[in-house]
C-alpha cells in the first residue's frame, strides 16, 4: 500500500513539475520578443489542460492498475514456472548425461567381463568335449578289446574243435592200422557187456 502511494505521489509531483516548467518557459518567452506577457486566459487554459492530463493519468492508473498488475503478475508467474520447468529439465538432462557417461565408462569393463566369461565358458566346453572324447575312445577301446577277446575265444574254440577232430581222425587211423580183428572182437564184446549191464 505504501508503495502504491509512493508511486502515485511521484507521478503527481512529476506532473506538477512539468506544469511549472512549462509555465516558466512559456512566461519567459514573451519578454524577449516584443513585450507581450502571456494572457491569463492562456495560462488558465494551459493549467486546465495539464490538470486534465494529470487527472486522466490518475484515473488510468487507478482503473488499469489492478488488471495490469494482475496481468504482469500472472505473466511473471508463468515465466517463473517456465523457468522452473526448464531448470528441472536441465537438471534431468544433466542427470541422464552423467548416467550415460558412467555407463560408457563401465562399458569397457563390462565388455572385458563378458569376454572373460565367454573365454571361461569356452574353456569349460573344451574340457567337456575332451572328456567326452576320451570317454568315447575308452568305450571304443573296451569294445574293441571285448570283440578281440570274443574272436580269440571263438578262434580257440574252433581250434580246439579242429584239433579234437584231427585227433579223432588220427586216432581212428592209428586204431585202424594197429587194431587186429581179434582186438576188435574183444572190444565189441566188452562194449556189449557194458551196455547189457546198464539195462
Characterize the structure shown.
It contains three helices and no strands. Helix 1 crosses helix 2 (40-178). By secondary structure, it is mainly alpha-helical. It is rod-shaped, with a radius of gyration of 68 Å. The chain has helices spanning 2-29, 40-178, 181-198. The termini are far apart. The model has no long low-confidence stretch (mean pLDDT 81). Helix content is 93%, strand content 0%.
Summarize the structure.
By secondary structure, this protein is mostly helical. It has 3 helices and no strands.
Biggest sheet record: none
Low-confidence stretches: none
Radius of gyration of CA atoms, rounded to a whole number = 68 Å
β-sheet strand percentage: under 5%
Number of strands: 0
Form type: rod-shaped
Reading the helices and strands in chain order gives HHH
Total helical segments: 3
Distance between the termini: 155 Å
Q: For the residues shown, what is the average pLDDT?
A: 81
Helicity level, as a percent range? over 70%
SSE class: mainly alpha
List keywords for this structure.
single chain, 199 residues, mainly alpha, 3 helices
Topology:
Blueprint: H1 2-29, H2 40-178, H3 181-198
Helix pairs in contact: 1-2
Amino acid at each position: 500500500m505504501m508503495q502504491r502511494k509512493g508511486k502515485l505521489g511521484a507521478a503527481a509531483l512529476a506532473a506538477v513539475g512539468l506544469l511549472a516548467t512549462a509555465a516558466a518557459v512559456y512566461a519567459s518567452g514573451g519578454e524577449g520578443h516584443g513585450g507581450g506577457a502571456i494572457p491569463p486566459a492562456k495560462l488558465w487554459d494551459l493549467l486546465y489542460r495539464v490538470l486534465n492530463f494529470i487527472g486522466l493519468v490518475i484515473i488510468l492508473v487507478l482503473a488499469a492498475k489492478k488488471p495490469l498488475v494482475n496481468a504482469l503478475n500472472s505473466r511473471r508467474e508463468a515465466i517463473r514456472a517456465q523457468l522452473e520447468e526448464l531448470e528441472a529439465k536441465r537438471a534431468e538432462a544433466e542427470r541422464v548425461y552423467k548416467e550415460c557417461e558412467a555407463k560408457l565408462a563401465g562399458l569397457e569393463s563390462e565388455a572385458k567381463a563378458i569376454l572373460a566369461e565367454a573365454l571361461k565358458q569356452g574353456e569349460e566346453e573344451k574340457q567337456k568335449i575332451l572328456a567326452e572324447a576320451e570317454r568315447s575312445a575308452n568305450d571304443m577301446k573296451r569294445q574293441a578289446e571285448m570283440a578281440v577277446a570274443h574272436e580269440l575265444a571263438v578262434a580257440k574254440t574252433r581250434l580246439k574243435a579242429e584239433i579234437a577232430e584231427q585227433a579223432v581222425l588220427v586216432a581212428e587211423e592209428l586204431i585202424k592200422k594197429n587194431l587186429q580183428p581179434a582186438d576188435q572182437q574183444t572190444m565189441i564184446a566188452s562194449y556189449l557187456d557194458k551196455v547189457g549191464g546198464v539195462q
